[in-house]
Design brief:
By secondary structure, the chain is of the alpha/beta class. The chain has helices at 31-40, 65-70, 133-146, 175-186, 225-233, 284-293, 366-369, 378-385, 422-438, 501-514, and strands at residues 12-13, 19-27, 47-50, 80-82, 87-89, 119-121, 124-126, 149-150, 192-193, 196-197, 239-242, 245-252, 259-266, 269-280, 318-325, 339-341, 357-360, 388-395, 404-407, 413-416, 443-448, 484-486. The strands form 5 sheets. Strands 1, 2, 3, 11, 12, 13, 14 and 22 form an 8-stranded mixed beta sheet that branches. A 6-stranded antiparallel beta sheet has the order 9-16-17-18-15-21. It has a 4-stranded mixed beta sheet with strand order 5-4-20-19, with helices on one face.
Length: 519
């Protein structure tokens, strides 16, 4: 049997033997798993990335609104079941090399420094993390360089301290977004260039096209985990990738303290991956589901679940699509996802509680709006969206034990989630209406997103110092096991009110550089 880690072996394994051996098995190739593999690429450890999907195909449909939005061409997640509505839905999860980052919006803000401490909200306290911003700061900087983050230091008054500047300058606003930014400044606010992960470096490939947010990039100009982490990691002879490989359970030894193998479904057959150390990075929902499916006599409630916290505390932000409309003028912006507004991110003189974050959305088109308004003819929607300025509003969601990911009798994922801090979110919408009206947009429309909005999922295996109330320690290792770590958004004790991706990357880099996986 050939050594899969020999220099003459391919980096992508397509025909694995019945048993695969490695030092570190990473389950998932998204922002956490891919970045962790990158961090370990020069460690000397034999690292195997196990990805349920394959490489997303490069094809003209990557930039087709009809294919991506109307037909859902790249949606490949199994359905989830909503326990509240009693309906199934397809979540915004993607199983490709690079995970869900292949279709993400590429906005990579750091958590604010105070987000790592307790924060009071109308519906309760957002709990403190067992680590501080200072523990992640250098890793944030490394991640920003990995993912080509463009931003302007000093524009955002809530931006935390940084030891390094953004690698590249912020992307300029255009069209109606530029008008909004100018008006917001005159109104005393501080709009800023949202940190974006795009290759608009000098000589970079990005053309700032309109099909970026929630679309794959046909020219690899989006800093996703595939392009910026996995592919560079695979240049090392000690990092290999197994695709089309779904991990169905993790097995332990008799004591229950050591994971010994992963059971993997690969192209219709079952193979076994044996490793010294295992890292689960499948996304908050699928990571929880894998642990729950891996129950045994020593872990009767699921692997690493003596605290009964696996799957609980599910968070996904309270989110709204917000449209500002000026029927007298068209919005000529092509790439619109450039603005951020954090003036109400923290409690202040005129808001007792934090309200949240505002950022640009990719430019809405008629075919996109058709899903939300199916009875309105597409030409009418196309005419309306030529005049819209499209924004995304998000408020922090609190961790509640009853908001959870679980499994039904068939082993399929179920979700129960009741949103929190709705009063704060309504106030954020109210203030945005006032802002855009003053900026010359007399009409506003907004629509809240429900349980199907899963792109910011987190919290299902939270970290903490007390094994009775948390799944992982501050170094992302499971309290109940000696060789199991989690490196995605599952460990988040709180969700903050900004996109989680670069915090996932920073946590993965911290773990990868700690030596815990290679000692």
């Amino acid at each position: 049997m050939p050594d899969l880690f020999a220099p003459d072996q391919p980096s992508v394994i397509t025909n694995p033997p019945q048993v695969v051996n490695c030092d570190v098995a990473i389950i998932g190739s998204g922002m956490g798993g891919g970045t962790l593999a990158y961090a370990l690429r020069e460690s000397g450890a034999r690292v195997l990335i196990i990805e349920q999907g394959d490489f997303l195909p490069r094809e003209r449909e990557n930039w087709s609104i009809k294919a991506v939005v109307a037909e859902g061409r790249y949606k490949n997640s199994a359905p989830w079941y909503d326990e509240i509505s009693k309906k199934s839905f397809i979540p915004g999860n993607y199983h490709y090399v690079g995970g869900s980052t292949k279709l993400y919006g590429a906005t990579l803000p750091r958590f604010r420094e105070h987000d790592f401490g307790e924060v009071e909200h109308p519906d309760g306290i957002s709990p403190a993390w067992p680590i501080s911003y200072a523990d992640l700061e250098s890793h944030y900087g490394e991640a920003e360089h990995m993912f080509w983050v463009h931003g302007n230091k000093g524009e955002d008054p809530t931006d935390p301290w940084r030891s390094t500047d953004y690698p590249f300058p912020g992307i300029a606003h255009e069209g109606a977004m530029a008008r909004l930014a100018d008006s917001a400044r005159r109104q005393g606010l501080h709009p800023f260039a949202a940190p974006q992960s795009l290759d608009v470096r000098p000589g970079g490939a990005c053309v700032l096209c309109p099909t970026c947010d929630a679309f794959p990039c046909m020219i690899d100009a989006k800093g996703d985990a595939d392009v910026s982490a996995v592919r560079p990691a695979l240049k090392s002879d000690t990092v290999k990738l197994l695709t089309n490989a779904e991990v169905t359970r993790l097995n332990t030894d008799r004591t229950g303290r050591q994971v010994t193998s992963a059971q993997v479904r690969h192209n219709g057959s079952t193979i076994t991956v044996q490793a010294q150390r295992f890292v689960v990075a499948a996304g908050a929902a699928n990571t929880a589901a894998l642990l729950l499916r891996s129950s045994s006599s020593t872990h009767p409630n699921g692997l690493a679940n003596s605290s009964d916290q696996v799957g609980r505390n599910y968070m996904a932000h309270v989110t709204t699509f917000f449209l500002a409309i000026d029927p007298r003028r068209t919005n000529d912006a092509v790439y619109q996802k450039t603005i951020g507004i954090n003036d109400w991110y923290t409690a202040g003189a005129d808001n007792r509680y934090p309200l949240g974050n505002v950022q640009g959305l990719g430019k809405l088109r008629g075919e996109m709006a058709k899903r939300a308004r199916p009875l309105i003819p597409t030409p009418i929607l196309e005419g309306v969206t030529r005049h819209t300025l499209d924004l995304f509003l998000q408020t922090e969601d609190l961790p509640l034990p009853e908001n959870r990911i679980a499994l039904n009798s068939n082993g399929d994922i179920t979700v129960r989630r009741t949103a929190t801090n709705m009063a704060s979110h309504r106030e954020l919408i109210k203030r945005m209406k006032k802002l855009v009206h003053r900026a010359g947009f007399p009409i506003t429309l907004h629509e809240g997103l429900g349980v199907e909005a899963t792109s910011h999922q987190c919290g299902t295996a939270r970290m903490g110092d007390d094994p009775a109330t948390s799944v992982l320690d501050a170094d992302l290792k499971a309290h109940d096991l000696d060789n199991l770590w989690i490196a995605d958004s599952s460990p988040f004790p709180s969700s903050a009110a900004v996109n989680p991706a670069i915090t996932v990357a920073a946590l993965a880099l911290r773990l990868g550089h700690s030596g815990a996986l290679t000692a």
